[in-house]
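Box 3.1. Reading complex inputs
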Amino acid sequence: MNGVLDRARTAMVGIEQVEARGVNAVISYDRDTLLEQARRVARDRVDGPLAGLVFGIKDNICTLEYPTTCASRILEGYRSPYEATAVTRIKQAGGLIACKTNLDEFAMGSSTELSAYGRTKHPEDPDRVAGGSSGGSVALVAAGAVDAALGSETGGSVRQPAAFCGVVGIKPSYGRVSRYGLVAFASSLDQIGVTARSVELAARVVSAISGRDRNDATSADRDQLALGPPPGDLSGVTIGIPVEYFPHDLDNGVRAACDHAIGSLRESGATVRQVSLPHTALAIPAYYIIAPAEASSNLARYDGVRYGLRMTSQGGDVASMYRATRGAGFGTEVRRRIIVGTYVLSSGYYEAYYRKALRARWLITDDFRRVFSEVDLLFAPTTPTPAFKAGEKLDDPVAMYLCDVFVAPTNLAWLPAITIPVGRSRGLPVGAQFIAPRFEEGEMIAAAAVLAGLVDAQEEFG
Amino acid sequence: MTGVSRDEIERIARLAALDVDSEALSVLTEQIAEILDYVSQLEMVDTGVGLADSVWLGEDQPQPLRADETRSLDAAANPASFAPEFEDNLIVVPMLGAIEDV
């Protein structure tokens, strides 16, 4: 089992090289901690499906080996007394936890520029963003430093950076993977996701961490996801192409790469037909009411008493200390979302905003239900453009939110999705996604594996 | 543009227990007004009586409920091993009336 130690040492070199390049994908990392895990796996001859594979873990997922900061000043140095079920299952399957990765603070962002630990750079172009909020996990995988990484999705935060960085990202169905130990942002949307450089490995990791968990009341009462061998072709599979995901202002290179991939799907035997999801345009407005509303409640626990930072207040009373701590501990975007969330839930605005958003969520979900009575899977671009320049959208929150226009609807509807690289536009990776009915990850992963074997992710379309 | 005032954002920030300085408050007011303006396109959504306003779970997917029972903390270590102070089986935190300097 020296192979395990060799893999750990290789990962150490990779992580340190990536960080030396200034990618800033890592928040916590320790050589000895990684080597100790590798020695234990070798000594105990752990022979699970992830034996010897090296992982990065997004720093909003609790681990025992490292602090869990959520990239926020308010949780600086916080160590969880327990670890996430997904992390436990990776370790039981023989995986090694190498480091905690950078993210937008509390997973609120689409570029990993909004971290108290500085922005994560795109591994191919330091002037561009890696995407977010799981930008650290994805950048580390894309740079080849770790085999796979855990991220989290509330509104597309694994698939969007995976598309920007040219790797695979899977968002499982809500309830497929336990949320125990994932720091809550918006509990009705949050789900742990996986990124890796191949469909096969990403799927293997999702399978290993999936299944019911008594510690998470929202985990589905289902066995571990079973994966079969990939099919030779897509005969008998009907794939819908939602017209709303191909707007007039879609990046030309993204459109061309997706069109080429659709041609490959047809050649592999799939029946491809156009479908409509007419309420897609409501997804971002609904998301940016529901997610902040839930966040304003979930983040109320950071009050300077139970966790991390505590600031002295001028008033000297407890309420002043709460306000001083939260005002200083949270970054700009988190404060913005807490205020929006409090506003839409406050007396007089609940009906006008929150209730409308819940209804819009139902309409979006019903769109998916209707099309999945006609097709097996959906196929669409993951993002409207390739990775954008750093700083380009920082002063325009709505423009930043619209980066997630093709990924947020699946989170609202609790559906699984997978993005794979399908080409390049102006030299930058382009991702396209399959979306499946809830708990139909198997067919979705099989189709992605077939398509990944047919397209050249390095082909230029821009 | 949705009319949200600086005073209203200040009131909401106070409700959310957030100190926001004067300069940040002006920027926040402007940005939150833009966000509220953007999400106000949901006005067209009908919320009439009898319409569902919860996520569709599927006919065979009832919300799972955990048994209503108390059980021990599933921590990897005894709280005494990581608590700054531990007394009478309780974690001792600094007194709220004696706020330390940062």
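In summary: Chain A has a mean pLDDT of 95.
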